[in-house]
Amino acid sequence: MKKPRKTVRARKTAPAKAATGASSVPRKPPLTISRPEMLVDGSDRPFRHLVHALFGFLARHEAVRAGHGARIGLVGIEYTVLISIGHLSAQENEVSVNRVADHLYLSGAFVTNVTNQLLKRGLIYKTPDPNDRRRVRLEIAPEGWSKLAELAPVQRMVNDVQFDCLSAEEFKQLSDMIDRLIDSSNRALRLQAYFAEQSAPALRREKSPQSIQ
Description:
Elements: H1 45-71, H2 76-91, H3 97-104, H4 108-120, E1 124-129, E2 132-140, H5 142-162, H6 168-207
Antiparallel strand pairs: 1-2
Helix pairs in contact: 1-2, 2-4, 3-4
């Protein structure tokens, strides 16, 4: 009786090497900024550190804001709009949706939705503007003031720790820089939108059936 033949397994071969010289070319990401003020020895690494650190800070600040809101039963943006109405009303005679939107760099439609939620919770009042029936005035209701007073002791301690690394002069400088960065970021967004509009026709031509041969 013949013994069964052993199956010969194919030996694994090493993957083909890249074209000659390709492996010796170092991979280096292109520069993401060209302003000499932001480059160090021709490298944008410090700039990348800055923007990534800003992302890290903003993520943590958003978590702090959400924590403030949660303490009084609100989501972060509801708390922010509520306290903004309070502080604006202490400085100005009238507070409108558009004023809050400008203050928070948000759209009027978005702030309207948030204030409607605060109105349902009985935390604010909305009254018609006697000078312009299309507008409404925003005021904090007694329940809203009560919520902010309840939050304040813990809020102060948390904020003190979050910003304890800044001196008075640094605080002023940072506040000024943030205002200027918001303005320059708005210009950057407009430029980005312009480039998107310019590239859109070319992309549509590439995807059109006529371009497929």
